[in-house]
Structure formats: structure tokens, C-alpha cells
Amino acid sequence: MAGRADVAELAAGVAAGDRRALARAITLVESGRADHRADALALLARLRAPGLPSAGRAALRIGLSGTPGVGKSTFIEAFGLMLTAAGLRVAVLAVDPSSARSGGSILGDKTRMERLSRDPMAFIRPSPSQAQMGGVARRSREAVALCEAAGFDVVLIETVGVGQSETVVAELCDIFVLLLAPAGGDELQGVKRGIMEMADLILVNKADGALKPAAMRTMADYAGALGLLRRRAQDPAGYPKALCVSATTGEGLAGAWTDMQTLAGWRRENGHWTARRAGQARHWFEEEVRQGLLSVLGQASARARLDGLGAAVEDGRMTPEAAAAEMLDALRRVDASRPA
Amino acid sequence: MAGRADVAELAAGVAAGDRRALARAITLVESGRADHRADALALLARLRAPGLPSAGRAALRIGLSGTPGVGKSTFIEAFGLMLTAAGLRVAVLAVDPSSARSGGSILGDKTRMERLSRDPMAFIRPSPSQAQMGGVARRSREAVALCEAAGFDVVLIETVGVGQSETVVAELCDIFVLLLAPAGGDELQGVKRGIMEMADLILVNKADGALKPAAMRTMADYAGALGLLRRRAQDPAGYPKALCVSATTGEGLAGAWTDMQTLAGWRRENGHWTARRAGQARHWFEEEVRQGLLSVLGQASARARLDGLGAAVEDGRMTPEAAAAEMLDALRRVDASRPA
């Protein structure tokens, strides 16, 4: 990106729903370069400004969490194709802070959802390869905003369910869906209680063939567990809910979509939709402030000092408190010497 | 606390192992008042200084995690009494950021471990009532250091297993123990994968009477699951390990203690103990720096501005990014106007 003219052109492309412009825009917000950052902020502001059709658009943002092996890609492909067949435009984004570690997702995302990726009504964005959490949150949030501005009706935000990524997704989506596989009575499906409490819908996938009875039992177990959770003000009666689906046969997918729409409709009518988005905006504002305050630690001089003091702490020459006091004092002096 | 003389007196009391002095010292580090803070830092520095017997002391710090209902208090009482009977001095601390919400733990801790709390070889500190996470971590860390300085042989650091408290405990302890109840095949015992990976020892409690077969099955399940985890460099062969215990009958408690000692001994001999403590000190140093940078947000003027901008973000008058930029700019100007 070179300047304002390009930003205007890119904004027009995104607002017109052009997928190549959208892909370039997401690459821009994902960039770590300072000049790219300024362009990214200008682009986002432009897309929100009255005038362009992108300003008032609001997609249904669906967060989708599930550990590897539950059939997430197959589910997204089948579910996405069902929506595009119904005339809806679908964007798929991945929030995956561990992708750099687990490897392969950059090449993998598109091939694992082959039919959906060729669908002109769909847009699939592979996980970014960088892995810093604050950065992941910001990039994901801005990518969602770009998809929304590009007129997508549904934005699926996918996470692999490690570390803090669920919390990021929960603060980005309107509806949070947890995908599970039929369990063989083992405790290790990796469902954290906190994720259960975030879930609006629990879908037990692979409810077909020999696994169907196990899927039904797992669904009943989770329906029971959901019944033990406190009813939330943002839910109509009967929600959160556990359902069986099969991404392979397609059974249950339409029902799951109906439930998502029911929930979204109810929340819109009862003010919870607006309240949730307002709360999310507040959350991201405060998070940006925190990240901004901590960003001084990323500067080379600060990092060098942090490493020096850290070594002294590690080998017992300084206490953590004394070293921290010295570090903070040094940062304050640097800050004060800057032109105001 | 009034001045240096009192700090010296308190340090002498703590170093002599006086439990009332220790209780007062912990109250001091838990205080939010600035003058108390200065005294607390002076106290900690004094206890670490060469001269007092407290300087070189190192307790075995055992982290204990378990969701409500697994019988944690009964376990701590039985385990603690076994250790004091063997001539060891035992301190019990709770890390519980949710205690203010769940209530009752301030009165509850002592009554739920009645016999241990009357034991002159034991010291039980109820959870602090404040619930700010950064504060919880610092207070807990300093309370552990005080117990160590007071010559306790074992410090049990207990957590209820919500939110980030396990991470805090893992960064405080030498050995991490996960307490479980016998499971009835349900997935909801609330064991997060991350906690499994932190555990050095998994103890299935209530392995007595009618629950014994279920406890054995649960132990076998977790032993199998632990076998799937990658062997860590800091573990001798056979660890991490799952065992059955009964806090009621006492069965298995001596074996669990033997395992903890084996593990601690092996780590000491192979340098992992020192490396772990060094890594923890480094972690706390960086955490103090982060908390220090974020502490400007706690000032009344900053809070007021944060609330004003936050409201503008919530009702859509400002974007999160623009509001954050304004907030950071304001904080920078205040900082620059301060005398360096």
C-alpha cells in the first residue's frame, strides 16, 4: 500500500463485495509494519463512514469451537454450502494462535474445505501464521469487520480450542457454537467448563452410521449438563441447547441453522444483540488500551533491559520486585524524555 | 505499621517462626495501602537479607488444585496432620480469586480444617477477600515467601480451579497435585487439558467404601491419559502419576507423600528444581512490570476518562481503535508532565 488513493480504492472494492479486495484488506490489517497499520486504520474508518454501503452492514457472526478430530472442516464445508445454496454469502475466518506451532494450516485450510473454497458465494481465510495473542485478537476483530463491510451475511469464526482463543472468539461473535464428537465415555474431550458456559448451541457431530447411538448419548449427557447451568438473560426458553448433526449425511444441519436464527432473532428483538455488541466494543477498547500500554516492552531497548534484569532475577542477584521497580523506573524516564 | 522499627520486629518474629507475626506479615502484604506496600517490600527484603535465619530457607511448595466437591479440605486436613505428626511444619494458603463472589471462605477455611487449624505445627491462612487477579498473584507469591521465611517445611497452595488461578499456582509451586473425585463416566469433572499437563501427581480421592471401584477406574483412566502426554524433561520415569487416596481412611496418603518426595528429590539432583524456581522468578518479574505499566489505569482520573470513552464506544459514537488512541495519548501527556 502506498497512500490514501490506494486505501480509497481498496475500500471501494471491499464495499462492493470483491473477494480479492477483501483478501488484500485482511492482509493489510494482519501486517505488523507501522505504515501498513496507518493504512489499515484509515481503511477501517473509511468503511465505517456514512456514504459507502458498507457502513450499516451487520453479518451474523457465528463462533465455532471444537478440538481437532471433531470434524470441524467437514462441518464448515457442509454447513457453508447449505447456506450459500440458500443464497447467503458466507465468510470463514480462523482464530488460531497455535497455527505457527502446529503448522500446516496455511496450506491446509483451503484444501480441507475444497468445495466451499471454490464457491463464489464463499470466502475462506486461512489462519495467519503469527502467534502473538494480543495481535491475534486485533487481527481477527478487524478481519471480521472487513467481512461484514464486504456484505457477507454470515461470518464463521473458527477456533481450535486452545488457550485463550475461545475467549477471543466469544468476544467477537453473536452466537457461540461448540462442536463435539460422540464420546466413548472418556473425560478427555477437552471441554472446559468455561467453554460450556459460553456455548449457545452444542452440536454433536458424526451422528451417522455406527456412531449414531454414541452421538445420541453424548447429546443427552450435554443436554443434561446444560440444564444444570444457570439460565442466562440473553436466552429464550430452551437455550442453550444440544443437538446431533452429521456433516457427512447433512442430517441436523438445517435444524441447527434454524436454532441459530431463532436465537439471533430473539436476541435482536429483546435488545440483547445490541447490548452484546456494545459490551464487545467496550471490551476491545479496553484491550487496545492495555496492549498499547504494554507495547513499550516490545521496543528493542526495553527488551534488552528486560533481558538483562531478567537474567539477574533468574540467578538470584535481584528479587523480582526490585528488578521490576528498576525496569518501570527506566521506562518512565524514557517516556518523560520524549516530546509531549 | 508505623515505621522501620516495626518492620524489623515483624521480620524477627517471622524468622523465629512465630505464627502470629506471620499472620500479621501476610495481612501487611495483602494490604492495598501505599504506606503498607512500602513496609511490605522492606519486610520481604529484610527476610531475604543474609543474617536472619530466614534467608536461605526453602520449603517444599505443593500446589493443590481440585474443583469443589472432590474433598479438598478433608484431604488437606488428613495430609497436613500426617505431615505434622512426622515432625514437619505445614502452612496452607488459598489462591482463590473468586472467593469474594462465592463468599464464605473467609469464615469457612478455618472451620473446615478444624483439627489442622488447632495444630501448633500448622498454619492456615484463609483466602483474601479481594478478587483482582494481578493482586491475587502478587499477594499469594509474597505469602508463600513469608511462610518459607518462617521456616515451614511444606507450603500447600490450594486453588479451587477457576479461571487463571491454576496458572498462578503452577508458577508458585515446586510440585503440582490435582485432586479428583471418582467419576461416574461423566465428562464434567471440569478437568481442563492444560491442568492435566501441569499436574505432577493426580490423586483420586474418596477411594473407600462403595466408591472404591469407581475411584480405581478413574485412576486407570487418568493413568492412561497421562501416558498419552509427552514425557517432560523435569520428570523421572513413571511420572506424572495417578494414585488413589482416601482422606477419610488415610489410605494412600503416605504413598502420595513418598511420591512427592521422590519427585522433589529427583528434580533437586538433576537441576530442574533450581531451573524451575529461576523460571518462576523471571515470570513474576515480567508480570510485575506488566502490572506496573497497567497500574496507571487504576488512578481515578484515568478511570473516569476510560469510562467516558468506554461509553462513547458502547453507543457507537467512537470506534474502539479511535477511543483507545485518544486514551493512550491522554495517559502519555499526563506521564510526560510528571517530574522525571
TrEMBL record, chains A, B:
<dbReference type="Pfam" id="PF03308">
    <property type="entry name" value="MeaB"/>
</dbReference>
<dbReference type="InterPro" id="IPR005129">
    <property type="entry name" value="GTPase_ArgK"/>
</dbReference>
<protein>
    <submittedName>
        <fullName>Methylmalonyl Co-A mutase-associated GTPase MeaB</fullName>
    </submittedName>
</protein>
<comment type="similarity">
    <text>Belongs to the SIMIBI class G3E GTPase family. ArgK/MeaB subfamily.</text>
</comment>
<dbReference type="GO" id="GO:0003924">
    <property type="term" value="F:GTPase activity"/>
</dbReference>
<dbReference type="GO" id="GO:0005737">
    <property type="term" value="C:cytoplasm"/>
</dbReference>
<feature type="domain" description="AAA+ ATPase">
    <location>
        <begin position="58"/>
        <end position="230"/>
    </location>
</feature>
<dbReference type="InterPro" id="IPR003593">
    <property type="entry name" value="AAA+_ATPase"/>
</dbReference>
<dbReference type="GO" id="GO:0005525">
    <property type="term" value="F:GTP binding"/>
</dbReference>
<dbReference type="InterPro" id="IPR027417">
    <property type="entry name" value="P-loop_NTPase"/>
</dbReference>
